[in-house]
């Protein structure tokens, strides 16, 4: 475990070294959130209208949760994971006495510290600009916090698989952009899944992507609670375990394709 904690500290140091690139990427997410908030305010007739049961206050809270969950494990983490494959550093990882997948997860936790700090800072600015939002309490708050914590390993599974795809594509940008696009749609990052048409709504709800934004956001709003809230959190856990096991299988297949320049 000491070796994994050391990897997390190194990852934190990497963020400090590349802080400019890191902050610019997260600032891009913040600007996107501001733009989406502005569009929704117009759609909701200046904040007085209602769409599918979502008023301005609920949409505002929903999108702020979306900003937080979208920011963690950002494209910065995505790129660094993929770079280990593309640069050939993965060959050195194979001879280290650590589990490759678990090692990458601990590195992501190192990046996560910086991302959480940034979310709090930028989120505070958004709250000042657009006004505060009501927060859940009691059992609802516990469900929300549990869901929010599960987002980390759940999203890691998707980001890690994107990085492993580089064994076949030998390029990161296209795969990463496709993942971000699919995630934004099926997670409900900009439009609540409840407003999607039938087939697309069903697909989004059963996919792992809903657990990234929709589930924690709905729990934060109190639109799901009790047994239904527990069911959604359990569905997040099911997908987290499934993605971890799928990644194990993909890793075994990927190692067989390993090609390093000069060897």
Q: Would you kindly provide a written description of the structure presented here, covering whatever features stand out?
A:
- The protein is mainly alpha-helical and 263 residues long.
- It has a two-stranded antiparallel sheet with strand order 1-2.
- A hairpin with a 2-residue loop joins strand 1 and strand 2.
- Helix 2 crosses helix 6 and helix 3 packs antiparallel against helix 6.
- The longest helix has 31 residues.
- The chain is globular and about 60 Å long.
- The model has no long low-confidence stretch (mean pLDDT 84).
- What is the average per-residue confidence, as pLDDT, rounded to a whole number? 84
Number of strands: 2
- Shape label: globular
Strand order, largest beta sheet:
1-2
Question: Could you tell me the radius of gyration in angstroms?
Answer: 19 Å
The termini sit apart by 31 Å
Query: Which class best fits the helix and strand makeup?
Result: mainly alpha
SSE topology string: HHEEHHHHHHHHHH
The major sheet is characterized as:
2 strands, antiparallel
Share of helix among residues? over 70%
